[in-house]
Amino acid sequence: MSSIIKFDEFEIEVTKKRVKYARLRVKSDASITLTIPLNYTKLLTILFLENIKEWLREMVAKRKALMLPENQTMLLGQIYTLKLNESLKEVRVLESEIWTPNLAKFDKFKKELARNEFMKFIELYQPLVGKKVNRVVVRDMQTRWGSCNSKKGYINLALKLIEKNPNLIEYVVLHELTHLLYPHHQKSFYKFIENLMPDYKQREKALKSS
User: Fold this and answer.
1) pTM score of the predicted model
2) CA 152 to chain centre
């Protein structure tokens, strides 16, 4: 269960879980999430935040500096200027611009692009994983890049993942497909990924910092 707390100038989404240590994340939109152990009191939470306050301010400032203006968007790691032209029937992608008749059309285009790009990597790695994918869902996910239901063979992928470089998309897809074999994050899970993608650690690090 999550709650929102105010700490200095920040609003932080706090979630209690069965974890050993507190873990704070500043997301790409500069929002802040904090996962804490079940036995953490409000006082312990505030003390934790006090200890990292200066680092937190620095990270939020960095994230805000990277945020795109309202008329810009990112697809596959490239920044585009988004422009409206009501006379158009479909979305047009140019070298550094995307023209769309309306925002609804662009949202539809973005979701279709995401599904097509994600499916390329699913079709590439599914035979190597050796497990059937019964359903792929692309949807808005605020706290994760993807998820997997290993029993049903369902893969969920975040729509916002289409903003990232293809090599980062490839890593997330392989990560979730591997959960069809290993529904955990133990050594065997990461060993399987490493065999297929030796540089997965670098990609994982790049994704976390993006």
Assistant:
1) 0.69
2) 22
